[in-house]
Specification:
207 residues
Length: 207
């Protein structure tokens, strides 16, 4: 077995790559939904009155960490593993989420190649780190660790490209289509790399 430490029911299940990938994607999309829905609602209700930008950021980190702990609890045994993966998940998503929250600041004259130069490393490096932590918790060998980091990193590259396309596409459109791109695009950009990495983790566990 290339990766140890995953529950037996996941290792023996042929649907494990899909299931684990879906769990990772869901956990990555939760903070995006919080940015898009939760933060505005809390603001409308006056929850941030008199507070600094640190308060929404702390809540965002908490939501990210909770999603990571949920995934960690499904894949590894022990509170320590859950806590470590929760912290790693929150750390890994910090950069991509900052990019997502700043979409409105980009000009309509930006190009996909130019934006990709910034977005791709912002996504690829943190997701590679998440692959490293996943491999460490699963007891993977060094070659498997690098392989898993590469899978997560490639997923992050796709996520950065998706976000670049969303920014340019939304800038070229107007009305409902532009709003749809801004609403759906960030979730895809953050969820896709997580799904690719999670699926790779499950596949390595049965390799």
């Amino acid at each position: 077995m290339g990766v140890r430490g995953l529950p037996t029911n996941l290792v023996s299940d042929r649907q494990a790559p899909w299931r684990v990938g879906a769990m990772f994607a869901l956990a990555a999309c939760l903070p995006v939904l919080f940015v898009q829905i939760g933060v505005p609602l809390i603001g409308i209700w006056g929850g941030f009155v008199g507070s600094t930008l640190r308060h929404p950021f702390v809540l965002l980190v908490a939501v990210s960490g909770a999603g990571g702990q949920w995934v960690g609890g499904r894949l590894w045994h022990g509170l320590k593993s859950r806590a470590v993966f929760g912290a790693a998940f929150a750390s890994a998503l910090a950069g991509p989420l900052l990019a997502v929250t700043g979409l409105e600041s980009f000009s309509a004259y930006e190009t996909v190649p130019r934006l990709s130069l910034g977005f791709v490393p912002v996504f690829a490096v943190p997701y590679s780190f998440l692959g490293l932590v996943s491999a460490a918790l699963s007891g993977a060998s060094l070659p498997r660790t690098f392989q898993l980091m590469g899978r997560f990193g490639v997923g992050g590259m796709f996520g950065g490209l998706v976000l670049a396309v969303v920014v340019v596409g939304a800038g070229e459109q107007s009305g409902v289509l532009a709003g749809t791109l801004r609403a759906v695009g960030p979730g895809i950009a953050c969820g896709l790399p997580a799904a690719i990495g999670g699926s790779a983790l499950a596949k390595l566990s049965v390799a």
